[in-house]
Specification:
This protein is α+β, with helices and mostly antiparallel strands. It is built from 6 helices and 5 strands, in the order E-E-H-H-E-H-H-E-E-H-H.
Length: about 130
């Protein structure tokens, strides 16, 4: 889809053309940053230990988020043929390469936190 504007013609952002959206889907969300933070602090970690370090997340959600991170190449999963099965997770080199992005987002959030809180309070008060 193309949109005409005063500067000429520009393409709108859709499912296949918006790289920022796709990038945020890979690293964003409520749980992925917490999972990546924990994985970045451990060479390998077992599922139950990871779950214990993020107590608010459900087992189902942790499994889902780990699968997405594994699919995107940010996390590796190793299953040992034991009874009971032992599964270990680790962050990949690709996963480590996005650490600076999380740090930048955190710094931006810290810098603007009071302003954001003020805007939220004003907005909520207007409802």
């Amino acid at each position: 889809m193309e949109v005409n504007n005063d500067n000429g013609t520009e393409k709108s952002c859709d499912e296949t053309s918006c790289g920022i959206r796709d990038g945020l889907l890979i690293i964003g969300g409520k749980w992925k940053s917490m999972i990546m933070h924990v994985l970045g602090q451990h060479e390998v970690i077992r599922f139950n230990r990871l779950k214990a370090m993020i107590p608010q997340i459900s087992q189902k959600m942790l499994t889902q988020q780990l699968r997405e991170l594994e699919r995107d190449g940010l996390v590796t999963r190793k299953v040992y043929p034991e009874v009971p099965p032992r599964v270990e997770y680790s962050i990949t080199t690709l996963g480590l390469s996005i650490g600076h992005i999380y740090r930048e987002i955190n710094q931006w959030q810290q810098k603007h936190r009071q302003e954001i809180e003020k805007c939220r309070e004003e907005y909520d008060a207007s409802l």
